[in-house]
Amino acid sequence: MENITKKLLTVEHHCLNLQYAHLRFHKASARDRLANSIEQNGQLMPVIVVPDSQQKWIIIDGYLRVQALKRLGKDTIIAEVWQCDVAEALLMVLKNHSGRALETFEEALLLKELHTQHGLSQTDLSKRVGRDQSWVSRRLSLIEFLPDNALQAMSNGKISIWVASRVIEPMARAIPEHAQALLNYLLKNAQRTRDMDTFYKHYQSSNIKERTNMINNPELFFKAKKITDADKQAIILKDGPEGKWRYKLALIISWLSELSLLAPIIFYQNQKEMETQELLQKFNKAKIQFNTLINIVEKLTNARFGNTQDNTLPA
Questions:
Q1: Residues 156, 280: one domain?
Q2: How far apart are CA 59 and CA 79, in angstroms?
Q3: Which end of the chain is more exposed for a tag (fewer CB within 10 A), N or C?
């Protein structure tokens, strides 16, 4: 597959066929950074194209470069022509990508294109890209339930990959009409990832009636959250640093209670050592921070309470 003929040439933009633009994600910030780089250093890496039957060139890889060059007002683009069919070229990009790293969802979209439009089975795909079949299956499952306009929204940068994978996709598996309604709202009303995380956690813990109300009027939820957040900030501001201290400690106490309940579940007999070590890694970091806080507080308060034999604070 890698022994194909390749040659460089300069192509005008109107000769490019952009039919696979939907397989790649396009972020305005990344495009602008690339445009600045090209303006200073020129186009360092060619786009990858294959010839089509209409005397045009199908872009296989390099859609961000095309956007950046158009933004700079360039009429032509340096391209590397691969003399092979589209499926073979897409497989090469998937297997040996030489540009920026492919997002997980971009890999999934390429696999779906090859599976549905070019008739390659999952077994064929795993062999051709040098991955096991479970990898192919996992990638395809990521987008199995996502609505088409969700994939398009990710490609255009209108919704984040996090929102698509952590909110829209699991919701689409369970209640597709809720996923579509929420997506329609997000396409018109951008929300921060943190707020979407709060929304989905509340959605998961709500009954059917409350879920329906949330989906029918997401704006009401986000407005209520803003008011709640503002009230919390007002309380903290009113009480000063002492109020913030009490508020944060209350959160820590709550989190520690939850972690105490989780510990017997995630640490179990015959658990693989590697898994145990991975779970302990962040716990040990938290323990170091907590011990640091203990030392700071004891140092600051010992002068008032006096040094005790066991070096602990009064309860």
A1: no
A2: 9
A3: C
